Amino acid sequence: MATQHSRSAARLMLAPAVILLLGWMLVPLIMTLYFSFKNYLPLRGGDLGWAGFENYTRFVTSSSFWPSVATTLIIVGGVLFITVILGIFLAILLNQPMWGQGIVRILVIAPFFVMPTVSALVWKNMFMDPNYGLLAYLWEFFGATPVEWLSKASMPSIITIVSWQWLPFATLILLTAIQSLDSEQLEAAEMDGASATKRFAYITLPHLGRAITVVILIQTIFLLSIFAEIFVTTGGAFGTKTLSYLIFQRVLESQNVGLGSAGGVYAIILANIVAVFLMRIVGKNLDA
């Protein structure tokens, strides 16, 4: 049992890391809150004084605000749906004995380690380019007209690109969960005459509940701030402007730090609302 002296020593050793972490989080948050109440335009006069809640009112009443929120939620929902469904399928497939299983697993997981900007450029130029992309050649091979994916089907294209990046993460978590499943349960169910569909529905899927919850929670946290893929592919055009990209436009393109900071506060509020919703609705599986 730990003594009072050892617990005090542990707190003392952890204190520098905790202080550094708090500073890393609190300093940007405090600065964002500070600038959100200021009229601060670096290249157009600098600090023009306090603005009160004017920045918040201007940002939320902007014609781009609610569409950007809707776009963000649609992308998050679409990516979660694809990665969870395909992640379960790939996890079950990779759990089967096969030749070169280790190499196949590495190839499936590899896209997760590619930088978002790089993967977006690869999809944009090598796959979705209407003139020289692989998909254009396939369309022409079958006698169809190539599709301008990033302009005519921008949202499905963005969702596809982001899903390709996050599918390995979901697959890895779900594969780990499947490997922890007691094989004796499946064997007993098979001996009792249960079909493969019933074994999946009543044994495998409930066992994956906690892993699916973890995948949804972690991916949602990161997907709410999606930016690089939009910046590289569509530049926020064709209805793909997310909340993060709107904030970028206000800060860098419009040179209005105060307005962009107010947008950052709204982004924090949105992330917390979604997180609380997921913890209450989906996160109940963690207590099961």
Protein described:
- Helices cover 72% and strands 3% of the residues.
- By secondary structure, it is mainly alpha-helical.
- It has a single domain, classed as MetI-like fold (Orthogonal Bundle).
- It has a two-stranded antiparallel sheet.
- Strand 1 and strand 2 (46-50) form a beta hairpin.
- Helix 11 (209-223) runs antiparallel to helix 14 (257-281).
- It is globular.
- The model has no long low-confidence stretch (mean pLDDT 82).
Kindly provide the radius of gyration, computed on alpha-carbon positions and rounded to a whole number of angstroms: 24 Å
Strand content: under 5%
Number of helices: 14
Order of helices and strands: HEEHHHHHHHHHHHHH
* Total number of domains: 1
- How many β strands by DSSP? 2
Indicate the overall shape: globular
CATH architecture: Orthogonal Bundle
CATH level-four homologous superfamily name = MetI-like
Mean of residue pLDDT values = 82
Report the end-to-end length measured between terminal Cα atoms: 30 Å
CATH topology: MetI-like fold
CATH class: Mainly Alpha
Contiguous low-pLDDT stretches (5 residues minimum) are none
Protein name: Sugar ABC transporter permease
Family: Belongs to the binding-protein-dependent transport system permease family.
Pfam families: BPD_transp_1
Subcellular location: Cell membrane
